[in-house]
Design goal:
Elements (H helix, E strand, L loop, with lengths): L5 H24 L10 H15 L16 H37 L5 E4 L4 E4 H16 L2 H15 L9 H42 L5 H20 L3 H19 L5
Helix pairs in contact: 1-2, 1-3, 3-4, 3-6, 3-7, 3-8, 5-8, 6-7, 6-8
């Protein structure tokens, strides 16, 4: 009959629990897996399966009492690391929704809202279109597997330890929002410029011939012209997606390079 000491049981629990909390934090917020369409029970099962598959590859495991107060900050750090990596992926996907919302506001379609079943909120129709396109491209290039591999690699670059996270780790997560706005503006910039030209033209026409009812024809023309511009802009969406996805991978590698 096999007999285990208390220290061996605690060491086995540490080898599983610490990676589990980091992986669970990642699946909590990462797109697709962290959406409302995936129940909490399914996310928990996925996190357990992934943890069991990689637990033997983790070499450095700190020794501590799993049921003591000493484990609270360590578990919190692992959750923050997982949530931070998943948050970067979520920001990458939301770039498309923000770009579509910017274009919809310029087109006059900001009132055209539809239900987003993934996030459970109302979004602009053009933003939902770009969000679905980005999500499908993300799955088509195995982005979910690539980002999961980077998260698993973080156990080597940012190993389990009793020390706290560097301040730069938190600062880098907060500055990712500026990257989201900058990237969304790059995607929407061609449509913004094209629609500004149309609005400027109608403005000149209204000043040159004030008897013309420019607004009555300008509003529907702007919507139709905006839809054509969106259709044209989608032709260059794939190169933009590839560039943004490469930047996402660099950001995730940079995030896990901060000392823990």
């Amino acid at each position: 009959m096999l007999e285990f000491t208390y220290a061996e049981i605690m060491y086995a629990a540490n080898r599983f629990l610490l990676p589990f909390f980091r992986i669970a934090g990642f699946f909590m917020v990462v797109p697709i897996f962290g959406s409302n369409l995936v129940t909490m029970r399914v996310r928990l099962m996925i996190a357990i399966v992934v943890t069991l598959s990689i637990v033997s590859q983790i070499k450095v495991v700190p020794e501590f009492e799993a049921l003591s107060l000493q484990s609270v900050p360590l578990v919190f750090n692992q959750l923050i690391i997982g949530i931070g990596l998943g948050f970067l992926v979520m920001v990458f996907i939301q770039v498309a929704a923000l770009a579509g919302q910017i274009m919809a506001m310029q087109m006059g379609l900001g009132f055209a809202m539809m239900m987003d079943p993934v996030n459970g909120v109302n979004t602009v129709s053009i933003g939902q279109l770009y969000l679905m396109l980005f999500t499908m491209l993300y799955l088509a290039v195995d982005g979910h597997l690539i980002t999961l591999a980077i998260m698993i690699e973080s156990f080597n670059t940012l190993p389990l330890s009793l020390s706290g996270l560097d301040v730069g780790f938190y600062r880098y997560i907060t500055t990712s929002s500026s990257w989201m706005f900058k990237s969304a503006l790059k995607i929407a910039l061609p449509a913004i410029i094209a629609l500004y030209v149309v609005n400027f033209t109608f403005g000149v026409m209204s000043r040159a011939a004030q008897q013309l009812q420019v607004f009555s024809i300008g509003f529907p023309f702007t919507i139709i012209y905006g839809l054509v511009v969106v259709w044209i802009v989608q032709g260059v969406l794939l190169p933009q997606f590839n560039q943004l996805f490469s930047e996402l991978q660099e950001m995730m590698h940079t995030l896990v390079s901060y000392p823990g």
